[in-house]
Input
Amino acid sequence: MKTVKVNSVCLIYFVAILLLIPFSAEAQRMKHSSGNTRSSQNITRQNTQQNKSINGGYQKSTNRNTTTKAPTNKTSTMDTKNKPNVNTNNKDAHVSDNMNNVDRNRDNVSDNMNDVNRDRNNINIDNSRDVNINRDINVDRDVYVRRPVAVYPRPPYAFGGYHYYAFHPYHYHPYHAYYWGPAYHPWGFFVAVIAVTAIVVSIDNQEYHYDEGVYYQQSGSGYTVVQAPSGATVQTLPSGTQTIVINETTNNYYYGGTYYEKTDSGYTVVPPTAGSVVENLPEGGEEVKIGDVTYVKLGEVYYQPIEKDGKNMYEVVNVEKVEG
Amino acid sequence: MKILYYLTVVIVLINFKAIAQESNYDTTAILLLDRMGEVIGDLQSCSFSVTTSIDQPGHEIGLVKYFIVHQVYFSGPDKMLINSNGDKGHSGFWYNGKQLAYYSYSENNYAVIEAPSTTIATIDTANKTYGIEFPAADFFYPSFTDDLIGHNDQIKFIGKSKIEGKDCFHIVAKNKDLITQIWISDDAFFLPVKLIITYNDKIPNTQYEATYSDWVLNPDLPNAVFEFTPPAGANKLRLIAK
Output
């Protein structure tokens, strides 16, 4: 009984004390919590000519209480204005592999970065070198790029929750599509007939026709040029193919927007490696403005305009989503 | 009784905290901010210059300060022109009440997007959607003071000071992530003279600074200046949302 009495006294006392607390703090917060949608009776419009005012006239809460801390819904630019980009450690690009690894369904994925065996195509892309399709990154922007082999010397460009890594400084030059010659056709190009020298390449139950660095798929009464299917292997590459040094033991070969790697079976289509520098981009790219930087987006790959050895070139960008 | 004692102490402390917060918003500071907001809200057009600087990473040696000079023109509730020139290149924004156009003089490329029907809504939408940062935009939000109160734990009037020879009121607002300093002209118009934001969150002590000058109030600005026509040969861009 004594316990019950004490508890009752406590409860009554507690309620009494609560009733004595000025309730204004909480109440005011609630009134100001609607931000842009705050009710009109709470706003004093000071401007009699508000229709012509540059901002519709000054608005001031009539029941403003300086204890109020209203979490407005409106994003004040005070919060976002030129907020310094986050300087991340370059190591980020190399320690967060798991974040960006992609389980590409058509591949027989192995956790072992040096041992990827693509069963369906019976292609072992490379057992001896650091080649692994599973290393491709797939950020929310659906970017498919293999990680760079070196550490970036500069912080990334940060914008919109993504980091854009590049080895070379940004140096804008206008995007102009490049034509590799009469046999070259850009993606989407339609032809009624293809050369008799074209060979058939099958990937994932899809049949492609390959000729002089160009991949076709049958469509209607003819053939449409398509993006090279990753994993396809051909025996020869056309003249005009550019060699890209990836590291001491690995080269990529670039032609018409497609990257290859030498394998035992020939030349296998691979995603570009971040940091690869190419001189020309094919038709089908689009200049996109991301914050202060203008990239060229080709397929799902972002290219940064750069200058190298006095020439205008493009570097494959490593795009990573910012954690947290 | 011990329980009652502790309960009382806790409740009194809670109450004391609420009372303490009341004094965190200096009435003089709020009065000055309101006065500035009222003057801006009464303007039917204006033009001014603003020089901004920002500490940014992105360089091998660390933070670098970038400077940009902007010429800003507002006319009515639905016209805006901003011409920016500095370390980030030369670019402009044109808003005519229907579309917001961006053009880079440095790169000779442009983008045009559909925009809301008022300048403030356009500024807000473009910032939220595309991360476009408009210089001096904060002061032009019609609920600037309320927003400042809403986002800060303290707002204080520090005193008078001189900025580039001009008498100013100095106000400081503070929250856990940043300190905002505002200088308002001590004259008939109470216009913003300087803004400094010091960030404490991601990279401590980085600053954004804006200095305002050459205010012209209610000038006659022809509508044609807010219309954008892409120059011949300019590449069309697509703006990527955040």
Observations:
- Residues 173 and 228 of chain A are 26 Å apart (CA to CA).
- The longest strand of chain A covers residues 301-308.
